[in-house]
Every structure is written in C-alpha cells, then in structure tokens.
C-alpha cells in the first residue's frame, strides 16, 4: 500500500484539528454583511501606543527654546531625527513619550539644565496597509489619517476589469490572531452598505480566489468567530 504524501498527511492533521476545535472552514466562509461589520472598530488615535517609524513627520518642542524646536521633523529611513546642537537621534520604535525623554537626555547632557521636550506625531506615515489580489497595482501603502475600504482599493489604482467586487477580504491581526471578514465593494460604492474603516497593518485582498491563493488555504477556527472577523489559523 502506498504511503500518503506529505500534503495528504498535513490535510489529515488539519482535519483532525478541526474535529477537536468543533468546526473549521476555509476563507470563503469568512463572515459578510452585518457580521463582517460587527468587529470593525473606530480608528484609534495616534497616541501613547504608537511607535515612531521611518518617514513619520514629528513636531518637537523644547520648552522656552524655540531655536531648538522643530515643526516638521521627518524621521529618516535609518530611524533618526536631526536636532539642532545634538545632531542625529535614533527614535524609531519609540513612543512619542520615550522619544521626548531620549531627546531631553541628550540636550541635558551638555547644553540645557532639566530640558522639557514634547514630541508629537503629526503624520504617522510609517503606518501601512497591504492591498493585493485583483487590483491594478498591488502593494504596500502608507495609511495617513482615516481610510475606508473604498479608498484603500483606490490606492492600488482600483480593481481590475474582471475583479469580483462582492468578495473583498480584509485580514487583520487582533489579539494575537489573524482574522478575516468579507465585504461587498459594489454595494459600498452604491451606498447600499457602509464603508468599513481600514486600520494600520490590515491586508485587503480583492477577489475570493486570490484571497484563497494568497492565504494558502489557511483554516478558519470558527469557535473563535463571534459576530465579526473569523480567526485564521497561522500567520500571514
């Protein structure tokens, strides 16, 4: 008797995992309609949790020192910001509060007594989304401000002529799990459905067949669904 191939063995293991979980499905069973919208939260403000990224635009204020303050300081590709007197300061990966402390520390070492520094993220250009599938120019795009699904697809120059607009998959990392939901872009364009908000790190895949190919047949752990995004097994 022939031994099963590796792919068949993997399929058997995945099927057994489904049985243990209670139910599993593939990406075509991602929730749609009201269920898909249920887990779309409002856009979070760029606040204490945001980590500064290359290309971000910052306002850096040094209290009582206008000559040392910067209105539009751009973080370089190397994650540096150039400050008067102290030169390049590495701040990528830091919160605004942490960056303030680093800059204040550098200024206090040689130039100022107990400097007070405030860093504000004016444009979080480092926040990005991925648009893939049946679009004219798939790629990685900066998320500057609030963005809906319709605008996100437009960043990739819109869907192709044969794109399946009724099956747009949004994949999101949430609570340590990769989750997915399906939306109807045609209905959104006609005003028949709300335009869901896209968040930093989201992946938008136009067309169910392309989503299945890109996700590699990943299983959806249905017991973790609730009313919103379906949880995908594994990472993207």
Explain how this protein is built.
The protein is of the alpha+beta class. The protein is built from six helices and 15 strands. Among the domains are: 51-123, wza like fold; 127-218, Outer membrane lipoprotein wza domain like (Outer membrane lipoprotein wza fold like), CATH 3.10.560. The strands form four sheets. An eight-stranded mixed sheet has the order 1-14-15-11-10-13-7-8, sandwiched between helices. Strand 10 (168-174) and strand 11 (177-183) form a beta hairpin.
For this structure, what is the CATH class of the domain at 127-218?
Alpha Beta
Indicate the CATH architecture of the domain at 127-218. Answer: Roll
- The CATH superfamily of the domain at 127-218 bears the name Outer membrane lipoprotein wza domain like
Q: On the 0-100 scale, what is the average pLDDT?
A: 78
Record field, number of beta strands:
15
For the largest beta-sheet, the strand count, sense and barrel status come to: 8 strands, mixed
CATH topology of the domain at 127-218: Outer membrane lipoprotein wza fold like
- Principal-axis shape equals elongated
Fraction of residues in H or I helices: 10-25%
* Strand percentage: 25-35%
GO molecular function, one term: polysaccharide transmembrane transporter activity
Pfam family, one: Poly_export
Organism: Sphingobium chlorophenolicum
Protein name: Polysaccharide export outer membrane protein
